[in-house]
Structures are given as structure tokens and as C-alpha cells.
Amino acid sequence: MRKAFIAPSKYVQGEGELLNLGYFVKTFGKSALLIAHKDDIGRVQSQLDQTAEKFGIEFISSNFNGECSREEVARLQEFAKGHNCDCVIGLGGGKAIDTAKCVAAGEALIIVPTIAATDAPTSHSAVLYTPEGEFDDYAYFKQSPSVVLVDTKIIAQAPTRFLVSGMGDALSTYFEARATANSFSNVNAGLPCGANSGECPPAKGTNAAYGMAKLCYTMLLENGLNAKIACDNNLVTPALENIVETNILLSGLGFESAGLAAIHAVHDGLTALEGTHHYFHGEKVAFSAIVQLVLENAPTEELYEVLDFSLSIGLPVCLADIGVESISYEEALAVAEKACIPEESIHSMPFPITVEAVASALLAADKIGANYKANLV
């Protein structure tokens, strides 16, 4: 059996770590293309100035337009060549990070997340959009980022909703890894190794990745609420440090090397419902986790544990929590059809999948979550 595991070359996390960014730039050369939204640069300009002076390096501003499109990637690649940039930095949220991955194409890449809203920073994949912001395609690179540098002081100063959303994304990691392992399905770590992607055979997950996925869930239950309280007050505490590591590192390595299943497919299906468009990725994933548990008829105790955890930190547990006040069976079928296309990860579930079964699980999960929430109020 062929197995695969992929991870960044170095992961560094701590309070004030952004001041060490210049050190990592210097390992590649003297200049770095900085891909970031102007607002994110403004939040950390002082730290950027300090680290540039301390380590004698230069940040080349890219005037990033905010969208990870093929056109913007091509522009920035030419811009980097024209300015002889020695490495690429993606600083901020998902769009800046994914654009940096595409520009670097697997070489000399430093990722600096300023929020812990998803598990994307550690992965070797990115999502491309059209210039208008519509989904275009997925991109995979030969390796994960060279360095992922996380300053927990900056994370703690961001709105708490980002951290909670990241916990929603991380909530999926163990349950999808378990389903993938039970079905002996392939994992993302075995996806394209480079330009000749057809030459890279698929692979199963490793025991190490599965162990990280299980630890991800444990850390959420043990630290989630206290981390939220810390973030509410812009404080860095051991619980917040643990959750930042959980959201970014454990979940990132877990999803990529241990597998995705129904949860992320249902998330993708939910985009068919207009009401969900104003909610974060992790918020929709959190509800989708309940759908997968219903779909696989997980033990009631486990389902209630997830509901209790989600409600304790403010994650969605029903469709109304993600902007869908009512839903017909036909609309549920539309969500299920989108979730069940051949390319989706839902087919990693360890049993046959039908559109009707997914639609029924979606509607049942909505009622279970809404009733559970109402009985606790």
C-alpha cells in the first residue's frame, strides 16, 4: 500500500514571531515579494519595518489586487522576476496566501497568516478564482510552503469570529480522516507532485496523519472555549496558543495527509443556497460536520458532544445559523447533487453514497441541531 505525508519544511508559532520574518527571508536572499492586502500590511507595518532593518532585507510591495486569479498570478510572477525577488511571502488571509502559493509554485515560499480561520496555510494546494471572484480551479504544487510563521499576538488581536471559524474547519478533520481510513480512500498528500501530475500515483494516509487528526479533535474539546474567551479579550494564553496550532497545523496536516470525506463536499454543496454566501468557510463546515455524523449514523453521544462543543463557542448547528431560514426537499436535493459530483470527497465515505441519502441527512441534521439548540436555551 502506497502512503504519503506532506508538510511545510518549518512551522514556527509564538507571540511576536513576526519580528523574526526577516531571518527567514535572509535564508533565501535579500528581498521578498510581499503579497498582502493593504489593510493587513497596515496592521503589521511596524513589525515589518523592524524585522527588515534588523536582518537587512527588503520587502517588495506587490500591490495585490485581492483576488487569486490566473491573471493576477501571472502579473505577480513577472513582477517578481523584474524585481529579482529571492522569495515570496503570503501575508494575511486565504486569498493572499493562495496567491503567494501560486506565484511561488512550490519554491522559496513563506506563509504568514494573520488570522486562524482555516487550515490552508500549511497545505500544498490553492484555490483559483476568476477576476470576478467566481471559482475557477484547484492548484497543487510539488511541496508545501518552506516556512509557516504564525504570530499569536496578531491572531489574538483579530476578530474572534475568525478563530471560531477556524475551529469549525478543524472540527471536520478527525471525522473525515476516520471515514477516509475506514474506506481506504486516497488523500490529498498523494496529489500532483509537479508539472507532470499524471506521473504521480495516488496514496493512502499515514498513521502519523491520522494521529494528528485525532489530536486535533481532542485539542478543540479541551481548549476551544477558553481560547475563544482569550481572543475576545485580545489575550495570548496557553489555550489560545493550542487552538492556533490546532486550527492551522494539526488541521492542515490532518486534512491533507489523512483525508477529506462528506463534510467538505456538503460544504461545497451548501454554496447552492444563496443565504450561505455571507458565512465563513469554517462556519459552513461546522454544520456540515453534523450532516456527516447523521449520514453515517454516528453514536448519539458523539453527535451530542459535537453539538455541545459547537454551541459553547458559537458555531452553527442548523441551517438558520448559516443564513437559510427554510429549505424545501428540492433545494436539499440540489445541495446533495452538488456534493455528490464524481470529483467530490464525499465518495471517501465507507459506504455507497446517494443524492437522496445526503439530502435526507442534511434535512435531519438541520432539525436535530435546531431542536438541540432550542432545548438548551
Automatic annotation (TrEMBL):
Q: Entry's InterPro entries? A: ADH_Fe/GldA, ADH_Fe_CS, Glycerol_DH
- NAD as UniProt keyword: yes
Annotated cofactor note: Binds 1 zinc ion per subunit.
Domain of life, per UniProt, equals Bacteria
Cofactor annotation: Zn(2+)
The UniProt entry, under PROSITE patterns, shows: ADH_IRON_1 (PS00913)
- Which GO BP terms apply? energy derivation by oxidation of organic compounds; glycerol catabolic process
Q: What Pfam families does UniProt report for this protein, alphabetically?
A: Fe-ADH (PF00465)
Q: Which UniProt keywords apply?
A: Glycerol metabolism, Metal-binding, NAD, Oxidoreductase, Zinc
Q: What is its EC number?
A: 1.1.1.6
Per the record, the pathway is: Polyol metabolism; glycerol fermentation; glycerone phosphate from glycerol (oxidative route): step 1/2
Domain Alcohol dehydrogenase iron-type/glycerol dehydrogenase GldA per the UniProt entry, residue ranges: 8-152
Name of the protein: Glycerol dehydrogenase
Which species is listed as the source?
A: Carnobacterium maltaromaticum (Carnobacterium piscicola)
